[in-house]
Amino acid sequence: MSFPGKLTSRFGRLARLFQAAILLLVGLLPLITSGGQVSAAQLTNRVVAVSTSQAAATGVAWDFEFDFTSTDVEGIIFTYCDSPVSTCVKPTGLDISNDLTSVSGQANFPANATAFVEVAANTGDCSDTGIAVTVTMYCVNRTSATAGVGTDASLVINAVINPTVASTYTTVYVRISLYDNSTFSNSGGAGNTLVHSGVVAATMVNQLTVSGRVQERLVFCVGALGDIESNPTDCTTGNGFPTDTTVDLGVIDNTTIARSPVNTGATTSADDDYGVAMVNTNAVNGVVVTYYAEAASSGSNQLRNFRVSGTTCSVTISSLTDQCFVAADDTNGETFSAGTERFGMQVTCIVSNQGIGTTNNLEGVPDKLNNVDDDVDGNTATDCEDTDTGNEFSWNITGTATTVASSAGSTDKVVDDELIKLRFGATASATTPTGVYAVTTTFIATATF
Asked: Which of 121, 188, 194, 228 lies at 20 to 30 Å from 72 by C-alpha?
């Protein structure tokens, strides 16, 4: 009746022996190479740093570093696999062929002055190398009989083509084998031994793309700014841009040239204002500010001239006896002389220090609008117009917009709150009829993105 108990006891002892055998085998696994040979000492502090983890990247540097105990190192095999142990399978897309890759940058090997060179032919354990894209091994050797400790020993393999990534990642396991001979022999004995080995890993991953959008922007405003008022910093009224849209030249006679801003105290109607236009845009191909004169809603002839509303003017624009001023030459500009009836506009300066980015790009001012002081190109003074006495003006009566200023020809074309200051000028002849003269202008900002 004791037989079952004895049988159970024997099975128990067999089970314990089997478990002990399994544990012994597991303990030996790290010492078994893919070829079934027992390896030598383990490389420590081993690492590989890749210059990029981008899948299928070309020209990649693989920098191997490791420590080893005192030995002569004459041959190294780097075996690129998809697993750390068992049969080596080359990761898809990886290319370490000799016609592509090269070795460089070795450091901290015994007799380090003797350089490693690549081995293109199979020899000894270096049995899967060469120029084919299917090879898994990259082998290097040298001739040296100097033994020593390798601390932070390093060697770089250049121009590797990384493997592709099938889904989210691909890990490459590189098995590193150090030999004390240049023929990669492991037959045993001094000069024929695999002395150190170890595995490192690098993972190829998908790249992360971050995107965002800077939207197209164009801000443009036009108004009349008082001479004593501070320049606005942008187109908002809260930052100083005026809501006034009228420039009054006051009394115009044949003895002087009325040039805005005309001091309020000089006449009963002048308002001491400049015309101003401000632009802010991130248009990469620049912005062009243009203007044209609106046609008067009543009257006849010379409808886009400085004129008395509702009057009938001469069909001859040079007439000095009708209630339409002679327009300043719009082709080349014209320098006014007191008593020679003319009306026109000029760009007196461009203030370019107003915006946060402070650009100086709205410099394309036609000569016909550029007064003789020639201070329109990027003048940043707050009161840049105060020293300007130029009397060159022009006036567009065609109804087709003409350029006032442009950034299209600048090296940098974006414009950050640059302020165009406009002066209007007029002088009457002795025969210019009385009346209240006026003209309305339209300004346009055209940005090319």
From this structure: 121
